[in-house]
Design goal:
The structure holds two protein chains of two kinds.
Chain A lengths: L1 H24 L3 H38 L5 H20 L12 H31 L6 H16 L2 H6 L9 H10 L1 H25 L13
Helix pairs in contact in A: 1-2, 2-3, 5-7, 7-8
Chain B lengths: L2 H6 L3 H17 L10 H11 L6 E7 L5 H17 L3 E6 L5 H14 L8 E6 L4 H9 L1 H4 L13 H4 L7 E8 L5 H12 L3 E5 L4 H10 L5 E3 H12 L4 H34 L1
Parallel strand pairs in B: 1-2, 1-4, 2-3, 4-5, 5-6
Classes of the chains: A mainly alpha, B alpha/beta.
């Protein structure tokens, strides 16, 4: 059992990881061909995950509806919408050509899915406005710096910033300040974070490949 | 009750209402504020301009309808700009909700400019797998996408006979709303295949991409609707992004006003309490 549960997964992980890394540096078919197979398998595995995901949505929400748990009416809407789109896509939209212009599936996408998603995202503007009034308090020097940077970037990145400061010398115009903030202080911080995160990813990757990190097997390191 | 007390307890629906009005009014009655083209947007335009006429370009539209108002204008402009240069476009999408949006843009502008599907442009559609698809796509286009968006085998599309990996591609244009998106394309494709690359992203994501711009891995960057408006100005085709900038300006001014007002009330009340 130890061989099946522990050793084979570790060797498999190490082989896949090392082969994928090698394929980055060695384009020879001996490395590139098996690495290509691995990529294909990964794509197939992820795609099959969508089927499991759909089944999971049905199971979890179906149980909640049957037991009338919290928000169960909304879950009925979710399940009905999901099943309706499946039926429209599979049986009412020309089979494999369901994505073509003029099908019922495309109609539902353009007239239901697109406006609903865009509406949800656009609501952010209203909540940001409310949060700006109620939550953004300049209690510390850090918060003050953040507020000043926000003021310059928010106004400097839109035409009103250009319009307000167009009579000033170029170096004093808000778009120039906004560009400077984005390209230098902001960039320096982001670069530092990215390098730190990159090193962390490399370290974690090596730990997994070498079998030190085994959380993916639901097992603490031994 | 003082004015500060009243304002602090203001029903937030009034804030919402004023935001709605301030966004709606400039859309109905445009102010036509001047748009200045920033460095990153100018570099995006120049990178596309520098692509030789008739080249093959890959566009990856990695977004869905939630970000469509922000990203569709720049997708439109990029496709139009490339078609005007007679570039041939291979499109793909890595977000499941987005393919019909990109497909619509390609067909609409393609028809408008007399481009033929299969010869001048191809939409390969969606493939799940995020970074893995980027890697596989770099090795072989036809192997990763054996069929196009509508199910036609890519072997039947003349454009796909001319190219099967990034060797024959002059530019990678990524329009991105998050993950997978520009960061992943830089890491998996640009870094590996050294393909010239530009990006258009949501405003909230674009600061994260500035390091890649500064390092030269990205040749240009359009940040949000403002970046799209600047690109529209550069290409001399004023579209929805330009129209939206007045509304965005008033919304930004309103949010700044709310931050300042909220703090004035906070500090005046704190001062009064001692």
């Amino acid at each position: 059992m130890d061989l099946l549960k522990r050793h084979i997964p570790i060797y498999l992980t190490a082989t896949v990881g090392i082969l994928t890394i090698l394929s980055f540096f060695i384009p020879h078919p001996l490395v590139a061909t098996p690495a290509g197979w691995l990529l294909d398998w990964a794509i197939v595995t992820v795609a099959s995950g969508y089927v499991l995901g759909a089944a999971n949505v049905l199971k979890v929400n179906g149980e909640d509806v049957i037991k009338q748990k919290a928000d169960w009416p909304y879950k009925i809407v979710l399940l009905v919408s999901m099943i309706a789109m499946l039926i429209v896509g599979f049986f009412m939209s020309g089979g494999t050509h369901f994505l073509d212009e003029g099908t019922k599936f495309t109609w539902a996408y353009n007239n239901l899915y697109v406006p609903m998603q865009a509406t949800m995202f656009s609501l952010l503007a209203f909540f940001i406005a409310s949060a700006a009034f109620r939550a953004f308090r300049i209690r510390t020097v850090d918060a003050g710096l953040l507020a000043i940077a926000a003021l310059i970037v928010m106004i400097g990145r839109v035409p009103v910033g250009q319009w307000l400061t167009k009579s000033l010398p170029e170096w004093a115009q808000l778009p120039v300040w906004a560009g400077w903030l984005l390209e230098w202080p902001q960039n320096a911080a982001k670069r530092g974070i990215a390098i730190g995160a990159g090193l962390g990813v490399m370290a974690t990757g090596l730990r997994i490949i070498l079998g030190i990190e085994r959380n993916y097997m639901r097992e603490d390191k031994s | 009750m003082s004015l500060g007390d009243k304002l602090e307890k203001l029903d937030r629906r009034w804030i919402f209402l004023l935001m709605g009005v301030l966004v709606l009014l400039p859309l109905l009655f445009p102010l036509k504020l001047p748009i200045a083209v920033s460095g990153p947007a100018s570099r995006f335009y120049q990178a596309v301009e520098n692509v030789p006429n008739g080249s093959i370009v890959v566009i990856s539209g990695d977004f869905d309808p939630a970000s469509a108002p922000e990203l569709m204008p720049m997708t439109n402009s990029a496709v139009r700009h490339l078609f005007r240069k007679n570039c041939r476009i291979i499109a793909l999408e890595l977000w499941p909700g987005g393919p019909p949006l990109v497909d619509g843009v390609l067909h609409r502008i393609g028809n408008e400019l007399g481009k033929k599907y299969g010869t001048d442009y191809v939409n390969l559609g969606y493939k799940s797998g995020n970074e893995v698809v980027m890697l596989a796509f770099g090795s072989t286009f036809s192997g990763t996408f054996p069929n196009d968006y509508s199910g036609t085998p890519v072997s039947k599309l003349p454009l796909m006979e001319d190219v099967d990996n990034f060797d024959g591609v002059k530019l990678l244009v990524n329009i991105s709303a998050g993950t997978p998106g520009t960061k992943e394309w830089v890491q998996q494709a640009q870094g590996r295949y050294h393909i010239p690359m530009v990006s258009g992203s949501t405003a909230v994501q674009s600061p994260e991409l500035y390091p890649y711009l500064q390092s030269g891995q990205l040749l240009g960057l359009l940040g949000g609707m403002a970046g799209a408006a600047e690109y529209e100005k550069s290409t001399n085709f004023l579209g929805p992004a330009t129209k939206g900038m007045d509304a965005q300006s008033s919304a930004h001014v309103y949010i700044m006003f709310l931050i300042l007002l909220g703090n004035v009330i906070y500090f005046s009340r704190r001062g009064a309490k001692g």
